[in-house]
């Protein structure tokens, strides 16, 4: 449009026709200005969408990157044999039931000898996570020879200390307004001066199940749950979806009932996902009595939900295979089924795979129907089977987002980053497949 | 366990059957396979189907009916004093039995008869699983042997195999219908139970929503009220806000992409919209609750407005952002379907590009764009996570976007999360709301899809 953009046409000819009258030129200028405005409005729309995307991702990354680090505190723990294993049997049950919290208290007592009052000692114990005694128990279980020795051990700090170390709890406000009191701040400073407190990579986040304590909570349970749910979804939705698409695209006669199926599939694709949750609750849980919170039910519900996506994508892929391929196969004596299975389907495979992966990515991010079938339960254990109680990554995000602790906010953002990472991976694979195998006929 | 074994046995027998059938067919004609009716692989598939399919159907039938069947047998074996109670008591009894059978603690001292029943339940299930394993394996072997015996050069193996495959394919296509039927039946049945307790007119037109139920009959505020109008109004408010964001931005983005952008710009800009479309709704919900809502509140405070921390505005705007790619991709399709000749005609008359778009392309594409907006509205109405996380729970009847409102989907989600008892109107009201939601979105989708289809045919 640039050649039209300069409306100064009067210079072209000295004789002024009606097309060079002032009104005409002014009108033309207005029209071109409107043209520019319209174009800028379009750019602004794209810009706004991009801005929102940047703000969205930016806010999540800036809130969440700190969750990949976790503060821990080093203490010289004396694994007192008289305390842990008075009989000296080294019986694992005795070792597991010993009072490890006392070991930590004793150790803190030697580091901070000035803290003698009960309140001060309790405040100091709160520096460490309530899971710290279990960490000691695990160490002793794995290596009973520790009993009777003294060792410098890194223990997980509590979430408040962690947030303080990351600078989210300001130092210079009144003591009553921060979750770390003055005694604790002084203790943290003392530990820091002795290099006994530091931030390191947060492995708990990737290996643990859910927990009420932010510093002990991880997403591994949710990842395993998501994986199991998706496995069920894939095992059901892909064969059924591809078969249905093959039938509808290649074999179905044009009758009222095939039209009905088509309309049905298009409508199902637009049914709100929460309605599928209601279906799962009423039919699978209440009618068939399948277990609540189980990946198997979640997988079935998500399979029903992704089925239309896969059918529509597969039909598009089959449609893109030119009829000449079918005619050639039929011409040399292949049956219709052989034609489809031996020739059309392999050629449509990249498109089917792409559609399937996109459908699976959709299922991975879905939350609402899974809330309905009880996958929102608080589950600490890593699920071991398809009928165990489990949760999935998006539902874990939903639950953590509800938790008031600041430390959960950063973990929620971290979990979102991981979920988005999986989605990027899947969509990247789909794009790669499309690019690599795309065929123009 | 036994059922997994059965599946493995069936798979092995099917593979064995395939090879047996193929070699048997080839041997029957002494290796001159030209004399066979079908290629040998079809004879193999024929035997494999006979070996695997009947037993597999048995497996599926057992898997679906096992729990119910065994439960009925256990109930029949329990003493009358336990089973001669109302439906609710039976449900409780069943739950106790299941808990005990799975080794869970029921929280109270169980009746010895119930414990015996639970043991009976486990024993019957074990027995049933073993029986199905044995019977299924026998069925598979018998099928394999029968099919192998039937193989002859004249047998039309291909036709038979293809007929079975055809039936399987039809069965798969019917799953979509079954899903719809399942949705409709489950919604209608549970909603009917709800409407037996609550007058449908009161539900649809009542102005007060507070779905708590009393634990004791004489409790204060014992009867919940189920007037859903505040929910409909809240849904409408958030949807309108979302559309005010999504329609202009999405439509202008689509126009820019299809009419102005060079192919290189398009390949660069398209992923932005695709990424927006691919972000899970729970992430938008988190963003709305933790970033957008405080932001809106701060802005409100700055200009002296009292903004709720769960304002409809925050949820609506974020939902609008979520729907932008949806509107833009649908409108993109519609705009591209307008024939180039219309544009060329307009340019020939001296119209500028924007005039062509506004006066020629848009009117021609209008039905499609209206349909796209309808689909977007249906999506906004059905969207759950953003509103569950960012909109409120209190049912205010207000048109002020700065106040907290609640929506139909939020209520469904909150009513059904956690433990439910399936006889209280409180739980069942979620299905009433679900039915309304389903009908509304279905109607919108039906009309929109119709319009899109009709419109596509017109220009093809």
TrEMBL record, chain A:
Membrane topology summary: Multi-pass membrane protein
Record keywords: Cell membrane, Membrane, Transmembrane, Transmembrane helix, Transport
Ranges where the ABC transmembrane type-1 domain occurs: 223-430
Transmembrane segments: 40-61, 219-248, 268-289, 296-318, 344-364, 376-401, 413-433
Organism: Azospirillum oleiclasticum
Compartment(s): Cell inner membrane; Cell membrane
Keyword Coiled coil attributed: no
InterPro entries: DUF3333, MetI-like, MetI-like_sf, Phosphate_PstA
Name of the protein: Phosphate transport system permease protein PstA
Pfam families: BPD_transp_1, DUF3333
Family (UniProt): Belongs to the binding-protein-dependent transport system permease family. CysTW subfamily.
Keyword Membrane: yes
Automatic annotation (TrEMBL), chain B:
Main location: membrane
Membrane topology, from the record: Multi-pass membrane protein
Transmembrane parts of this sequence: 41-64, 130-147, 167-189, 231-256, 268-293, 313-338, 359-381, 430-452
Keyword GTP-binding: no
All residue ranges annotated as the ABC transmembrane type-1 domain in the record: 232-448
Keyword Cytoplasm attached: no
Entry's localization field: Cell inner membrane; Cell membrane
Keywords attached to this entry: Cell inner membrane, Cell membrane, Membrane, Phosphate transport, Transmembrane, Transmembrane helix, Transport
PANTHER family reported in the protein's UniProt record: PHOSPHATE TRANSPORT SYSTEM PERMEASE (PTHR42727:SF1), PHOSPHATE TRANSPORT SYSTEM PERMEASE PROTEIN (PTHR42727)
Family affiliation: Belongs to the binding-protein-dependent transport system permease family. CysTW subfamily.
Cited function: Part of the binding-protein-dependent transport system for phosphate; probably responsible for the translocation of the substrate across the membrane.
Official protein name in the record: Phosphate transport system permease protein
Protein species of origin: Azospirillum oleiclasticum
Upper taxonomic lineage: Bacteria, Pseudomonadati, Pseudomonadota, Alphaproteobacteria, Rhodospirillales
Gene, per the UniProt record: pstC
């Amino acid at each position: 449009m640039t050649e039209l953009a300069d409306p100064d046409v009067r210079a072209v000819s000295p004789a002024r026709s009606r097309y060079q009258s002032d009104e005409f030129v002014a009108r033309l200028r207005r029209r071109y200005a409107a043209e520019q405005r319209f174009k800028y409005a379009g750019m602004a729309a794209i810009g706004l969408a991009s801005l929102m995307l940047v703000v969205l991702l930016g806010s999540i990354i800036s809130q969440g990157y700190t969750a990949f680090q976790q503060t821990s505190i080093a203490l010289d723990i004396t694994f007192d044999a008289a305390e842990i294993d008075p009989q000296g049997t080294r019986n694992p049950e005795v070792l597991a039931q010993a009072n490890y919290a006392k070991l930590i208290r004793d150790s803190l007592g030697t580091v901070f000898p000035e803290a003698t009052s009960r309140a001060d000692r309790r405040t100091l114990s709160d520096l460490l996570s309530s899971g710290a005694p279990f960490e000691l128990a695990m160490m002793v279980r794995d290596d009973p020879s520790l009993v009777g020795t003294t060792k410098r051990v890194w223990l997980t700090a509590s979430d408040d200390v962690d947030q303080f170390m990351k600078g989210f709890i300001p130092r210079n406000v009144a003591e009553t307004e921060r979750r770390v009191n003055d005694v604790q701040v002084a203790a943290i400073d003392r530990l820091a001066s002795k290099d006994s407190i530091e931030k390191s990579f947060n492995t708990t986040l990737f290996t643990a199940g859910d927990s009420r304590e932010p510093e002990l909570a991880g997403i591994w349970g949710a990842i395993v749950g998501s994986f199991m749910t998706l496995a069920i979804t894939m095992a059901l939705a892909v064969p059924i979806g591809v078969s249905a698409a093959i039938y509808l695209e290649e074999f179905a006669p044009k009758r009222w009932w095939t039209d009905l199926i088509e309309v049905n599939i298009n409508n199902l694709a637009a049914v709100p996902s929460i309605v599928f949750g209601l279906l799962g609750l009423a039919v699978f849980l209440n009618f068939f009595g399948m277990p609540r919170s189980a990946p198997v039910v979640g997988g079935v519900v998500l399979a029903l939900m992704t089925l239309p996506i896969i059918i529509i994508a597969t039909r598009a892929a089959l449609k893109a295979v030119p009829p000449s391929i079918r005619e050639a196969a039929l011409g040399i004596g292949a049956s219709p089924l052989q034609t489809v299975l031996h020739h059309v389907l392999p050629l449509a495979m990249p498109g089917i795979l792409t559609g399937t992966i996109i459908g699976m990515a959709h299922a991975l991010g879905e939350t609402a129907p899974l809330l309905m079938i009880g996958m929102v339960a608080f589950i600490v254990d890593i699920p071991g089977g398809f009928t165990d109680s489990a949760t999935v990554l998006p539902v874990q995000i939903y639950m953590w987002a509800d938790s008031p602790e600041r430390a959960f906010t950063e973990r929620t953002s971290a979990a979102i980053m991981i979920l988005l990472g999986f989605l990027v991976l899947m969509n990247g694979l789909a794009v790669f497949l499309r690019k690599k195998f795309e065929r123009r006929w | 366990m036994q059922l997994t074994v059965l599946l493995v046995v069936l798979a092995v027998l099917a593979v064995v059957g395939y090879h047996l059938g193929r070699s048997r067919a080839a041997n029957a004609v002494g290796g001159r396979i030209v004399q066979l009716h079908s290629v040998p692989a079809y004879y193999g598939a024929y035997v494999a189907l006979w070996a695997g399919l009947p037993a597999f159907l048995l497996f599926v039938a057992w898997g679906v009916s096992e729990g119910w069947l065994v439960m009925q047998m256990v109930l029949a074996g329990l003493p009358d004093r336990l089973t001669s109670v109302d439906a609710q008591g039976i449900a409780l009894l069943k739950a106790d039995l299941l808990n005990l059978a799975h080794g869970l603690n029921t929280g109270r001292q169980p009746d010895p008869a119930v414990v015996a029943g639970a043991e009976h339940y486990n024993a019957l299930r074990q027995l049933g699983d073993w029986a199905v394993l044995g019977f299924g394996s026998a069925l598979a072997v018998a099928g394999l042997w029968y099919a192998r015996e039937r193989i002859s050069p004249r047998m039309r193996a291909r036709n038979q195999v293809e007929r079975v495959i055809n039936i399987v394919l039809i069965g798969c296509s019917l799953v979509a219908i079954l899903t719809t039927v399942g949705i409709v039946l489950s919604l209608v049945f549970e909603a009917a139970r709800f409407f037996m307790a609550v007058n449908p007119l009161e539900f649809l037109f009542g102005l007060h929503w507070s779905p708590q139920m009393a634990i004791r009959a004489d409790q204060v505020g014992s009867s919940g009220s189920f007037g859903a109008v505040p929910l409909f109004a809240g849904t409408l408010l958030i949807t309108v806000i979302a559309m005010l964001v999504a329609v202009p931005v999405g439509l202008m983005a689509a126009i820019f992409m299809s009419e102005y952008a060079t192919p290189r710009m398009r390949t660069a800009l398209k992923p932005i919209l695709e990424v927006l479309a691919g972000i899970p709704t729970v992430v938008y919900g988190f963003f709305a609750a933790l970033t957008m809502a405080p932001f809106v509140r701060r802005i409100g405070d700055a200009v002296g407005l009292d903004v709720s921390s769960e304002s409809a505005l925050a949820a609506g705007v974020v939902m609008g952002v979520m729907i932008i790619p949806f509107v833009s991709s649908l409108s993109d399709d519609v705009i591209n379907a307008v024939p180039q000749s219309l544009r060329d005609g307009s340019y020939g008359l001296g119209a500028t590009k924007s005039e062509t778009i506004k006066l020629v392309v848009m009117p021609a594409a209008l039905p499609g764009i209206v349909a796209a907006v309808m689909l977007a509205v249906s999506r906004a109405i059905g969207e759950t996570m953003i509103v569950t996380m960012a909109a409120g729970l209190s049912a205010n009847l207000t048109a002020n976007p700065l106040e907290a409102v609640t929506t139909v989907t939020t209520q469904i989600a909150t009513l059904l999360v956690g433990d439910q008892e399936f006889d209280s109107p409180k739980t069942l009201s979620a299905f009433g709301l679900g039915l309304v939601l389903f009908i509304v979105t279905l109607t919108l989708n039906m009309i929109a899809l119709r319009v899109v289809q009709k419109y596509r045919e017109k220009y093809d």
